[in-house]
Structures are given as structure tokens and as C-alpha cells.
Amino acid sequence: MSPEFILPAVNFQCILPQILLSLTALLVLLVDVFGLVKKANALALITLAGVVFATLTLFSGTGLQETAFSGMILVDGFSFFLNLTICLILILTILVSMNYQQFFPGINSGEYYSLLIFAAVGMSFMAAAGNLILLFVALELMSVSIYVLVGFHKDNLRSIEAALKYFLMGAFATSFLLLGFAFLYGATGTMDLLTMTEFIRSNPEVLSSGLFLSGVLLTLTGLGFKISMVPFHMWTPDVYEGAPTVITGFMATGVKAAAFAALVRIFMVPLGSLPIDWSMLLWVAAVLTMTVGNIIALVQDSIKRMLAYSGIAHAGYLLIGVVAGGELAQAGILYYLLVYAFMNIGAFGVLALLGKKETEYNTLQEFSGLGLKYPVLGLAMAVFMFSLAGIPPTGGFMGKLYIFSAAIKSGYVWLVVLGALNSVISIYYYLRVIVVMYFQESGAEDVAFPAPSPAITLGLGLAAAGIMILGVFPSYFWVLAQNSVFVPM
Amino acid sequence: MLLEYIPILYLMLVAIGFGVITVILSSLIGPKKMTREKAASYECGLPSEGFQYFQTPIKFYVFALLFLIFDLECIFLYPWAVHYNQLGLFGFVEMLIFICILLVCYVYVWKKGALEWD
Amino acid sequence: MSELLLTLAVKSVLVVSVCMLMVAYLTLAERKILGFIQLRYGPNRVGYWGLLQPIADGIKAFLKEELTPANADRKVFLLAPIISIAAPMLLLVVIPFGDTVTLFGREFTLYLSNPDIGILFVLGISTLGSYGGVLGGWASGNKYGYIGGVRSTAMMVSYELSMAFAVICVVLLSNSLSLVDIVHSQAGVWNIFKAPVAFLIFLISGLAELNRTPFDMPEAEAELCCGYNVEYSSMKFALFFFGEYTHLFILGCLTTTLFLGGWHGPLLPGIIWFFIKTFAVIFLCIWQRATFPRLRWDFVMKLEWKFLLPLAIVNVLATGFIVAIF
What we know:
By secondary structure, chain B is mostly helical. In chain B, about 70% of the residues lie in helices and about 0% in strands.
């Protein structure tokens, strides 16, 4: 006879936002395929409504501290903060996409919006995962959706090349991750993060076992690929350049947020007590990531490619937080991810705004004189650039400040010095954009700027306002981030 | 329990052995008078033209992918069905949700025209 | 232990030989029945009433020349007929022909094996059988064979879906994957009365899995001059042929087991009931072959994907609902 079947504890309340998001995705798909709406922006508006509603339900879970689905889902401040970030990323991306579809009508389809949402659902489950299996499934949901989104310009060879490159290398990296999880499971006997933390606490000798260390390394490889950590960054420039610009913004911020969530959940908490040698490894990785990203970004002519390299550099800054460890650094990472979402999607949003049918303008020459021709747009771009460079009073500065100060508190002074030097280097190429925009004669006459739609105005305005609020009045969000750190129960 | 698999092993040997022995025997017994005409591929008497592996219509791949999706869904239903008497109405609702999500995909696929054969 | 192993070996050989004999005569039965339906005699020269015909066919196939086309992939070409006979033969192992009987003071089960995962084993192995067709068609280096092989794969995988969904209804009613448990659970009411739609879906998909008319697209004589086995001759062709009839026999057995109550029945011993039902199902399959014309290829796919599959899925839900309520 079959053994007694034990029903798992089911608590749908805990994953309500994700359920709503998934329902929205299915709805958009059906609405599109049945051709129920004719207006150009209707699909985007339906998506937006669903996402905003899901974001609001997120707040019903504030302050909760529990596990659901037998430990699969952790509902805590950490997942709340990251889910909020991911929802913001999603909203901004949708707003920017509504304008982008003028140039690339192909993206105005149900598939585009539902894939966007499914990727976000994957990200938010990654942030909420309390189990390596769920983490992996969520990562796959996110990755597969994004592979498709990267290749969404079906007629554009660069886009397809990017998708194929990302897919092949991503699949390869994912197999490393899975092997790493298997090793961690073999060493600790559990897939559950909280149980794993307990186990490591009571059996510290496991930390030096070969199986465990190879698990750690392989996991780091897999996640390092997603955050484009050097030396796993090779795909980043090509993929970021080939992908539709709005998707580049989405994946640069969203994937980073989700992958850092996983890094924090795995590396800062269960492995927080690990001896110094593995953080030495991350130390080197952080320095390399920052430096490689910044140095190569210096010589880029295309702003899109430059931003891709800057994405690598920012992963390096965030890695400083992971190296530092501790709750303060966790809060710093959370805060930085939020700011990064605003500034990066904002910057890519400006790129997505300039162009004509089937082409975009994203070289430096095409930006010359832009700031004088379109003062508001120029101002917004300047804010994003200042923030990316980390110049006060923008949010980017505060984010770096929090991470660096946490690192100094943990005693990594040299790391912070290197990070600060890198910031100084990066100022050169960020400010170059501003210089070109304001102090050069407009070269390319045909750089046309279509009338800004309300959506993109709202999107870019939101991003710029977010940066300024996070930069000038950081205390509310800083306290929120500090209350959101992941402490195993 | 492992005992139940011994007959399977036996029958596997018998079945494969039957096939192999028959093929070997018939190649030993039958006459062998091979000519070039006999070795040519038979296409209703006309001489064969072109390469024998032409491009397969993409439709076959689409159906193969759809098969994968629905077969996975189906396999997922088996453990559910085995324990159904213990799950009761709760299990029914859970599976209803799961199947409805997949039916949405089915409707999508149908409307997109992936099920048409032309 | 060794005695047990020996008993099992003897039983295996016995089951295989008896069943293969039945399958051999199935070929004769089909020709006879078709003949009578079409007002012909069917084979009646070899032996009384044509009873030696299957043996004559076998000897003839052995004595024919074996041809391998010049541009065939030799290894795969040899492998394909072996797969296509081995897979259905292997399925005989899980068919419960009857309950336990007492012979010479010892208890014997009238089935070789009763694994927990009986049905999954059946579905898995019967799909393996479709490799025979596709590899054979592909390896023979012939355009018709190639089309036949590709078609056979597409059709088999498609119809396997609705078949698997129909089987889920049976599992829902019996709460077990073991074929013996399923038969036991039908001691009162047969599953065909509890799940008639599932029965029809199972039978139709089964016919498609068998490549039988009206679903014999992979070997459609008129368009593909025999499809995937066009280049096969002598005993290798006979293996394909034999494999198909073994599969038909297996389909009859499975239908009986899953839907018609297996060995249950009044008065007569169980095993007799089992074979009565099995041959009734097989007769139905032969009968419909004489009745229905062949479907066009796009209709075959349409029937599965637009009718049988959604019907099967909804049927699972409906069965589940009814089981949950009562």
C-alpha cells in the first residue's frame, strides 16, 4: 500500500504578489492572442495595472517574518525590500517600453509583456527562496524569459547573436550552479538555507571539507556569471549591446538584484562564518570586476556599450558589500540595488528614447548638443550620469557611501581605497557624456527626438526623482534597508 | 520488491535475443546475389534523385516541442492521481489551477496557429 | 533462491512462446476476418482453412534475399527491426493474464511481474517501440522511408499524449500504478462503465500508436509505398510486421486490463475471460480496419491536437471531480 501522504503547508498569502503577477502575464497573453484590444498602448496599460496592483499587495506583507511551503519561501524584510525593487524595475521598464515600441513595433505584443513579467516573477522568487531547489527553478524562470527577451528583435542580427550567446553561456553557467548546489547538498545534507545555516553552525568542520568548498566555488561561478563578475563577464558587453535597449536596462538591474539576493542569502548568511580565505577570493574578484569594467568603459564610443561595462563595474562595487559581510553591508547592498535600478533604467531609457524607426542613436557623436536642444532630457541624463558616477547629492553617492563605510567597519580599508579610485576613474567616462551633450556642437542633424509620450516622461521623471530622493533624503529608505536584512530565524 | 524486476530482465534478454538471432539467421540462410540495381533505393521504379535527407518541415519540430510540454504535464499528473483518494477536493482544486494554466497555454498555441498543419 | 529464479525463467519462456504463437495466428486471423468482411476466402491453401499459413510465411521470409541499400546507415538499419520487435515483446512481462492459481500444490501467479510502476513501464516501453519505425525509415536512405519515419514519430508522440491522459483516469479510479492492483479494483464495476470516454480515447490513440488504419499514415501504400519499411526485405521486414502484431496483441491485453476488468468474469476461469476480452478488442480493431478509410495526414494531427487532447485533459478533470464528490 502507498505510504501515508502528508499534505504540505500551503499559504497562498505569502506569494500573493507573485500569483497576481503571473495572472497578469497570462491575461496579457490571452488578451493579445484573441485581439481583444486595438489601441497601441492597451497591452502595456493592462500589464502596468496588474503590476501596480501586485506591488500594492506587496505592502500587505510588511513586517512579516515567516516561512511558507515547508521552508521553500522566506517571507521576511529582505524579500519584501527586493520584491519592491523588482516591482519598481518592472514598472519603470514597462513605462520605458511604451515609448520604445514606436521604433520597434514588434515589442508591442503579449509575449513581450508576459515574458517581462515572468522574468520578474522568477527574480522575486529568487529573492524569496529559502531552498536551493526553488532558487534554481526561479533562476531558470528568470533566465529563460530573458534569453527570449534579448532576442526579441527577430530581424536584427545583433539581437539574435546576443540571445544565442547569452543562452549558450548562460546554460553553461547554470550547469555549474546546479553542480555547486549538488555539492553543497552533499556536504550539508540539506537544500534548505535555514537548516544549512544551523548545520554549519553546529558542524563548523564541514567548512573546510573539499566537497563543501568545491560547492561554494561552483555556486559562486554560476551566480558570478549572472552578475557579470570578472572573469565571467565576457558575455556582458555583446549581450547588453545587442539586446533591445529597454531589455538591457531591465536585465542589468533586475538580474543583478536577483542574483545578489541569492549571493546574500547563500554567501553572507550560511557561509558568513566561513574562514577568511573565501572572502579573499571575493576580494580579488571584486577588485578585478571594478577595474576591468571601468578601464574598458573608458574607451567605448557607444554609450550603450559603455553602460554595459559600467554595469560590470557596479557589480564590483556591490561585491565589496558581499566581501564586507555583516548586516550593515547587507543593508548597503539593498540600498545600492534600489538606487541602481533607478539610475540604470533611467540611463537606458534615455537611450531608448532617441532614434527613428528600427534604429537607435547611442554613439557619443549622436549625443552631441543634445543637452542644449532638449534641456529637460539633458538634465535627466545628467542626473543619471552623476548618480552612476557617484557624485553627491545623488542616490548613487549614498549607495556607495553605505557600502564603503560598511567595508571600512569590517576592516577592508584597502578594498575601499581601490573602490574609491575606481569611482574616480569612472567619473571620466560618465562626465564625458555630459560634456558631449552640453559643450559640443550638434553634429548629426538628423538625430530626431520624437515627442515624449506621457509614459516615458513619467518613467524618466520617476527614475530621476527616485535618485534625488534617495540622495537627498536617504534616511527613510536606509532605515527600511537596515530593517530588511536577512537574519536567519 | 527487486524480485519483480528479474522477469523484466529475463524478458529483455529473450526479446532482444529473438530479434538478434532472427536477423542473423535470415542473413545466413537467404541467398546473396547483390547487384547494383538491387542496392539502389527503391523509389517506385524511377531512379532516385537528389539527397535522401531533405529538410524536414519546421512543423514537426513545433509539434515535438508541444509534445514535450504536455507530456511533462501529464507525468506530473501521475503521482497526483495515485494519491488522489487522500488528497480529495483539495487536490482537485490544486490540479484544476495547474491544468487551467496549461489550458491557457493550449489556447494560446491554438490561436497562434501552431496546431494548423499548413 | 535459485529455484525461484529457475521458475521465473521457465515462466518467462512459457509466456513468450504462448503469446508469440497467438500473435502468429493473429496475422492469419486478420487476413481471414478481412476476407470474410470483403466477401473473399482469405488464405485457404496451406493446410486446412489456411492454418499453416503463418508458418509458411515465416519460412518464406527466411528464405528470401536480404537487401541493404547502398546508401543505408548499416548499423541503424539492422538495429531498427530489433527494436520494433523487442519493445512490444518486453511489454508481455507486466500483463496480468490471471490471478494466482494452484498447480502441483504450489501457488503460481499468472503474470510474470507486478512492478509498482506498471503503467509507466508500459507507456515508456511502448514509446521506445516507435524508435523502430523512425530509425528504420531514417537509416534506409530512402526519401519515402524518411517521410514515413518522421510521420510515424510525430504521430506516435502526439497520440501518446491523449493515451497517457486517458490512463490517468484509470489511475484516478484505482489509485495505483500497478496493473494487478488496477484489475483487483475492478472486481465490482469495470472501468469502462466508470470512464467510458477515457476508454474511447485510449482505444483510438492505441490504434494510432499501432500505425493501423485509419492511422496508417507512416506506411500509406498509395503515397509512400510502405513508408519506413520500404527498403526492408526478408526476415527484417517480417520483424517489423511481427512487431506490429505483437503491439496489437498488447493493446488488446492492456485495454482488457485497464478498462474491461482483466480476468474478472462469471463462471469461466479468469484466464479464459482475459483472452475472450482481449480477442474481442482485437476483433474490434480488425473490424474497424475494414470499415474506415485512411485519414489524410493533416486530419490525423488535427484529430489529436484539436479534439482528443483537450477532450482527454477535460476528461481527467471531470473524472477527478466525480471521484472527489462521491
